[in-house]
Structure formats: structure tokens, C-alpha cells
Amino acid sequence: MNLGISGSSPTDIAVKTIKTILDDYGISSTYVGNKPKKDVDSIIVTGGDRGVRNYFHKTPNPEIPVIGVSESETSGFLAQIDLKEFSAYVSRIKKEDYQIGEFTRLGVKIDGKQAYSVINDVAVFPSKSAMLMEHILRVNSEEVWHDSSDGVIVSTPVGSSAYSMSAGGPMIFQDSPVFGIVSVNSLDITRRPLIVSDSSTIEIDDVSARLYCEVVLDGVDRLRINNTLECTKSVPPARVIKMKKDSSAVSALTKKVKLAEDLLNMPPSSKLLLKTLEYEGSMTQKDLAQKTVLPDRTVRLALRHLLDKGYVKKKISIRDARQKIYEITKMD
């Protein structure tokens, strides 16, 4: 067996820890970054769900299955194992005692130029908030609507329980061969989310706003768009190794529903921080302030509320003992 390891760098603490454990079990491993050779059996990716998504954004070999490892004690949907328990799973990895899940990816073209494929969603929004965006939605070249809204989201089944669901979209089971489309806060009160076959070509066309508009890829990168976004199914799918049975689509969606119900009773700043932690993974207070653009005092008070209610927990970073990181408390 030959395993690859992917992380922020070969000297990253999580990467070094995993390699040491694999060496102790007599398993050959090499740091491969985002460019593994095809003779690698599987890739161990650090950084939790966000790390797995980022890996698939950059790798030229998405057909090689990955094992996601989180550096916190909260397991995710794509990264089921936390670093502290990794050694307990090595014997199963060695025997290939696991299942491989295939996650549909969404291919993206912006104004005719290919971008990387996303696992969760692609969205189009004005560059500034509180501003309407006009667009035409076409599916397989047929016009479906001409709309004015805050923006539009196209999601995969996995991404349907992330940003799309928060905007009123449907929850889609992972193995469903479809994509979801949500117009966010449309001026047309009859506008409803759509489900289309994943063999469809989806176009968001004639995009315009008072200022320019941007495409947001998996909540990470923002790229300027002049006119047209095109989305199609990307082949091959992302292949992710599943080590735990309690991470089915049903259990994942159940947790999302519970989280959505809890959000109704929270202050807006706490909601924003919780959704940011849910989507981005563990973050410091400084990271949260930068990501949400909230004042430091507001972030501090919102974190205190979330800690008091038990929605998040605080721990010491394994990279820097002087630094505190915040993460969502695991819901049983």
C-alpha cells in the first residue's frame, strides 16, 4: 500500500503526525500536496471538510479516493476522522476496510473561461450587499426565468444542506442525480427553488447590477463576472472514503435541520458566526472578524453567547498554544 498525504505543507504538524503514525504501522506514505501520482492508492487530506474541498479544487487527479482528517474533535461530513483518533483507524485503512462515497462535482465556466469544479455550490451575487442583481436563468438553452434578486445559487446534493438550504433551498439526498437552483430573496414572491437533472446545462446569463457582480466558488474564491455563468456536471466525481456509519445523508440532514431550528432564536451576529464556522470549519476570533467583517467587540459578544448556549466550544490550537480556536459543538 502506498498512501499520499496532502496538507498545507510537508512541515505542518498534522501532516507530520499522520506520517509518523503510518511509519509506525509500516505503511509507506509520501507528501504529495495536491498533485498525487496515479500509483497512489489513496490520499489522506488534513484540514477537515474545508481541507477536502480545497484539495479537490486543485488536484488534477480527483479519481484517487481521499480520507479526510480534521484537526479538531468535531468530525465533518467529508472529513470523518479527527487527528487524535487517526491511529485507531490505521489498521482498517491498511486492510481497505471502508466504503468509498462518490460526490457529484459542479463544473464552472465564467464568461466562457473554465474555473475549478466545486463540491458544494457556486453562487452569483453583486459585489456589494443590499443591492439587487438581474439575471436570466436558462436550463438546456431554454429560458426559465428573468429575475431580480439578491443573487442565485446552484448547488450539488452535498451542497444543498449548506448555503443553499439557508437561502430556502431544498435538502437533496447525496445519491440523487440532480442539482438545486435557488434565487435568493427574489422580488417575485412566487419564485421557488428548482431541481434539475445533473445532466443539464445551467446558464445564469445577462448578469447585471448597479456595481459589478461576482461568482463565489464553494464559499472560498470570488471571481468577477461580466455576463454569463455556465454550470455542468464535472467528471469524475470526488471520491471520499467513509470510515463511520453515522455519516449518512439522512443523519447529516437531520443535524442540519436541528441547527436551522436553533438559528431562529439567535441574535443575527451569532447566527452569522455559527454559519461561518459550520461552512468554514474551526477558526480564531481574528479569522471570524475578518471573514464576517463584524467589529471585534460584536464577534467577542457573539462568541460568548454561542459558548454559553453550548453551540460552539473553544480550544487551544495545535499549531500555536497561544491561540484559541472556535468550532461547532458536535450534535449527537
Span between termini:
34 Å
CATH class term of the largest domain: Mainly Beta
Strand order of the largest sheet: 7-6-17-14-9-10
Low-confidence stretches: none
Number of helices: 8
| Helix fraction bin | 25-40%
Task: Predict the CATH topology of the largest domain.
Answer: Tumour Suppressor Smad4
CATH 2nd-level architecture of the largest domain: Sandwich
Topology, number of strands: 20
Task: Please compute the radius of gyration using only Cα atoms.
Answer: 20 Å
User: How much β-strand is present in the residues?
Assistant: 25-35%
Helices and strands, in order, run as EHEEHEEHEEEEEEHEEEEEEHHEHHEE
The structure class reads alpha+beta
The 3D shape can be described as: globular
The largest sheet is:
6 strands, antiparallel
Domain count: the total is 3
* CATH superfamily label of the largest domain: Probable inorganic polyphosphate/atp-NAD kinase, domain 2
Mean pLDDT score:
88
List keywords for this structure.
332 residues; alpha+beta; Rossmann fold; Tumour Suppressor Smad4; Arc Repressor Mutant, subunit A; 3 domains; 6-stranded antiparallel sheet; 8 helices; 25% helix; 35% strand; globular
Task: Report on the architecture of this protein.
With 332 residues, this protein is α+β, with helices and mostly antiparallel strands. It folds into 3 domains: 2-97, Probable inorganic polyphosphate/atp-NAD kinase, domain 1 (Rossmann fold, 3-Layer(aba) Sandwich), CATH 3.40.50; 104-235, Tumour Suppressor Smad4 (Sandwich); 265-328, Arc Repressor Mutant, subunit A. The chain contains 8 helices and 20 strands. Strands 7-6-17-14-9-10 form a 6-stranded antiparallel sheet, with no helix packed on it. A hairpin with a 7-residue loop joins β19 (312-316) and β20.
